[in-house]
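Q: Give me the 3D complex with calcium ion.
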Amino acid sequence: MELIVLLAFAFKAAVAQYVFSDGFENGLSNWTPATLTCTGTGTAGIDSTFAHTGSNSLKVVGGPNYCDHAFELTTAVTSAAPLIYIRFYIFHTTAFPTLHTTFVAMTDANDGGNDLRLGAQNGNLAWNRQSDDATCPSQSPVGIAASVTIPNNTWTCLEFKVDETNGYLAAWLNDNPIAGLTAQNRTPDIDQAWYASKPTWKPLIQNLKLGWEAYSGEADTLWYDDVVIATSKIGCGTLASTTTTSTTAATTSKTATTSTVATSSSTTTTVASKTTTSSSAIVVKSTTTTTTITTTATTTTTTTTTIPTTTTAKTSSTTAATTATGTCSIKYGQCAGIYWTGPTCCVASTCTYSNPYYSQCL
Ligand SMILES: [Ca+2]
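A: Here is the predicted complex, encoded as structure tokens.
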């Protein structure tokens, strides 16, 4: 018993920032289907024939209509709060469309329980806030160009950060920062509009939902694997400090496996088939992960308590002045479209029809 405690400490010292790691080798035991307002043809479930590592992955068949959405959910993110890093490998098969889609959704308790979404619009990745349909980057030519797409038919490493204390976001594709997904500096075309409509925006994330949701008739089939949630940058390669792990490795073989989750440190994400080598590492890893979760959960409880204090202390008087949009969308914001429930007038711009689902202030 003592040994286990010691191990837990040693392990915590090394990789305490990891609160969750799942390669779906134990099925969906760490996930639950997200409860959605309507259901259609979308499905999410284990695929035991295709994986980034190991044998299993999460397969999502997302239908074209809004109700054809499907998501699997974990609440482990709350153990990493208030600074949450999430990394996974994603493999999708249809180019991101011009119109808006979502593949990651997170319930935000500070935003009326609406989702903070990561998806795509105009072919590139974008954050989207369900409550006011704000996007980061702005869907202007400059904003769109500051983001990237996820290539089809290859496993790709995607990581993002939600900093609840400061209300900041960041993201990396194959470890490369995505400028357009950085919400922090109130930069025109990037995140100015994001904060303009909600100057004191600070999310309180309740869960991570991986799946698919379309708003304009777009379908995609996707796979997810090797999901890690942590309190610091994870990266696409090896999971954190191998240093301490090697110390503990002497004690038990159990720990020896921990260092490895992302043994596939190759950022050369090639087509799916080349995964066999690291597979066993991942499988064993899941045993250790359980230890991590417990350990870190304890630490985080303390951290979580601090959130209200921090939040209240930070009233941003600076940002309030940035842009007063009133009830109209700002330039490059959405102003009309099927499913659109936001403002229909524009500040210093004209609501311009793009398609039945999207009109933009230009
Ligand atoms: Ca797997």
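A quick observation: The mean pLDDT is 77.
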